[in-house]
């Protein structure tokens, strides 16, 4: 028989792994593909989650990627694009 403590340990470990995956690993990997630095990606996911919940988290990275493209192509906004991550150029 399994004790309730074993079930709680498994639940805690799964929750910790899920938090690390969703808040650190996925933003880091996806951020590298769209050339946005990890901090910008993590902040975008957290802000998107705070504003719109889970759908906001899913839409945060594409939204930031669109902003980065705009910032990189508008001369006066290029410094903001540089802060968000490096360009392909």
Any chance you could write out the topology, listing elements then pairs?
Elements: H1 4-33, H2 38-73, H3 78-84
Helix pairs in contact: 1-2, 2-3
Shape: elongated
User: What's the N-to-C terminus distance?
Assistant: 61 Å
What is the string of helix and strand elements?
HHH
Determine the fraction of residues in helical runs and give it as a percent range: over 70%
**Radius of gyration in whole Å, from Cα?**
17 Å
Count the DSSP helices. Answer: 3
Largest sheet: none
What integer is the average pLDDT?
86
Put the structure in a nutshell.
Helices cover 82% and strands 0% of the residues. It contains three helices and no strands.
Give structural notes:
The relative contact order is 0.11. The radius of gyration is 17 Å and the shape is elongated. With 89 residues, it is an all-alpha fold. Helices cover 82% and strands 0% of the residues. Helix 2 (38-73) packs antiparallel against helix 3 (78-84). The model has no long low-confidence stretch (mean pLDDT 86). It is built from 3 helices and no strands. It starts with a helix and ends in a 5-residue tail after the last helix.
